[in-house]
Specification:
Chain B: InterPro entries: GerAC_N, Spore_GerAC-like, Spore_GerAC-like_C, Spore_GerAC_C_sf. The complex is a heterodimer of chains A (474) and B (379). With 474 residues, chain A is of the alpha+beta class. In chain A, 47% of the residues lie in helices and 12% in strands. Chain A has a 5-stranded antiparallel sheet, with helices on one face. In chain A, strands 6-7-9-10-8 form a 5-stranded antiparallel sheet, with helices on both faces. Chain A has a two-stranded antiparallel sheet with strand order 11-12. Chain A is elongated, with a radius of gyration of 29 Å. In chain B, strands 1, 2, 3, 4, 5, 6, 9, 10 and 11 form a 9-stranded mixed sheet that branches. In chain B, helix 8 (222-231) packs across helix 9 (303-330). In chain B, 34% of the residues are buried. The chains are: A alpha+beta (474), B alpha/beta (379).
Chain lengths: 474, 379
Amino acid sequence: MTNRTQTSFTSVDQNSDYIEAALFYTNDLKKRSISFQGREGMVLYLESITDTELIERNVIIPFSRNQDKDLPELFTTLTFSLETELNQGIQGLLEGSCLYFLEGMSEFYVLLTPAKYERSISEPENEGVIRGPHNGFIEQMKVNLYLIRKQIASPNLKVRYFTLGKTVPKQVSLVYMENTANPELVKIVEARIQKISLDWILSTGFIQELTEDNPFSIFPQLINTERPDHTSTYLLDGYVAILLDGDPTALIVPASFFSFYRTPDDYNNRWVITSFVRFIRLIGFVTAFQLPALYIATVSFHPNVLPLQLFFTIQGSLTRVPFPPLIEAMLLELIFELLREAGLRLPSRVGQTIGIVGGLVIGDAIVLAGLVSYTMIIVVALTAISSFLIPSNEMSSAIRFLRFPLMIAASLFGYIGISFGLTLIFIHLCKLESFGQPYFRPLSPLKSQGLKDTFVRFPIWSIRKSTSNPKTDK
Amino acid sequence: MSCRIKLGTIALAVLIMLSSLSLTGCWDREYLKDLHLAYGVGFDIANDGKIQETVELIIPPEIEQKSTTSEIHTSYGHNLRSASNQLRNRVRGNIRFLKNGFQLLGKSVAEQGLYSNLDVNFRDPSNPTSNVRVIIAEGKASDMLEQKTVGELKVGEFITQKIESLEEMSVFPKETLDTVFRFLKDPGQDFALPYIAVEGDEIITRGLALFSDQYYSGMLNPDQSILLVLLMGQQGKNARFTKKIDLGYPDNIQEYITINVGLKKTKRKFKVSVSADGSVEVHLNLKLQAIVEEFPGDRSLKEKDLQKVNQALSEILTKEAESVVEEVQKANCDIFGVGRKLIAYHHNVWKDKNWSKDYRKVQFHPKVEVKIIDTGIIE
């Protein structure tokens, strides 16, 4: 926004000229002269973001009928304010208001008449649950706040607005529970958000990258979700949520490694079942980034650990492959990443083609062509499936990326290389912090209470008061 | 809070990553693909005194889902390693002994002494020892391996399976290169190894080869082997005896009874005592619990009959145990570790003894008690 200030002129034409010039004579700026009690007046609005019917009904028709009343009484059906600062008026125009100027008046009216084209609050596609609320955040921050307030009808729920972006201002809100959120944490989040000084911010990805503790880490340090219930659970636990107008994603801090392995479904299922599912996810976590490395290390350094029959089977499938295992694995992993990315971008009607190309042509023909072995295909397929087990897309990508350095370590030093690689990863995880909170809690630092809801889920009555609450962790 | 990594650090990291990628030929890497697996190895001493090494190589199939094939190769050398090197000159690729299942030693090797011929296995840690069986072949080991197949199985597979199943039947004690090494180094204890032979197309079990120090010194037949294994305190899943007993029944069928003492609770008492004059006495008591597995005929076993059966079997087995001990002593094979006990508890006595001579003078008092606890599900 420009820093110039300009108080409104008393002449309508001067005002309209100024605004037209400020908006560089854009074509969707509409003017309409409406006189009031013999004085010349003018309505200005941007037709692209205002509801023209609303203006017709609540601004123009009242003028024709109630020429005898006072001016403010005309607009009782609309939210309005009186302004003298023209640049404020222009900002109002850009946000969907219409302006009314009256000849000889030093102030002007800003009437709120925004167009509303809202997506329905349907369930987010990549965060579906079997049981539980099926609504989701949309691009309107107000609606998102409404969804949260619907879940938590408590005076403790506090919303604080910030405006980010120098040329294109955007509203950001900080949501937290006054009674459970750690004031220190709120202060840190607030300070980091206020420190952001960009010209414009389009998505929560910007906020995420600008507020992270360690931007060089491959692990996500903010939880993101499009689910109001997920957000509310975290809020009640003392976490802080950041919402951005125009983005259906809520960012929740401080994240922990294990929070990315949680889904709202975990608390809707019976606790034994959930514990089993969590255990499966844990296996998925291990296989997702270690299986190719283990395979490479085994076939190139430690074939003696294989049982005899498996030894011959794998050896048989390897005989025709001309590459060392690392190259073989890299080749297949890269093909898989290609297919995944292509499947993501492809329109769904062509999507089947990817299935055929990926599954049949590459899966089978690549072995027949002697480029990779069947065992490697099994390994990579298992890895791929396990990486999709992780509920959070960001964590899944991080884990998928991690296997490449591990594969290299395995091909250089075998099992020793893997253990060194894992050591480095775990050192990093233990050292990492998210908004001042340890990232690898409750494992490091070890909190037995927090462990009840980490690898397994204890019954709710046993964990209710003791989840990995940022306040109690402090 | 946010750590600013310098550009130089990133560049260095990238450089290390890229250069490590190019390190393709690493020193201790051995690709599974390039290995030629020696599954079974046999050693003999040739007529000119050289070591003859025979190896069964497993060749992976060229086409997937086909079974593996095998090749037998022989070479000669002054010691094991030189024979192996000779072998490497002859066969394709790199022979590796990673999955070595057994080492078959010809009788000539066993008579000449084991230690010198097993030395390489203990010296080089890349040779597996923990699950490698040591087997003695009657005649030449090479003859046995050169059969190539026994029935449908490759000879190596056949021998391993055979040894494993006979260990389960308590015919062989569980001895691997590891345990053999321990006994070779122990002056107070000897060992016995599986003893097999070729008969026509078949490979049959001769029993146990007894060793004195590191030299072959005698053998036991399979029946005696089972008793020896039990006396040693080991036990497989099965341990069967078929004995002739007389219960006074009129029909002749009911003379033979088969009992199984495997997987049942046994009590073994092994006591070494030294008398004032320095003579050593050994009491070896064995209490076995047995299941009657076969006892054909009309008459069922009654409670009072069982007493008789117990007594008869105990007598028979005690007598057999005495003969087993006699054989073992004759072979000068201190398989029960009497010497070890002396070293541990009667060290002064041990120091005065010349064990290789004095072992034969040890008085053994073996005693076996059998108690039948189950006669099966028919009355």
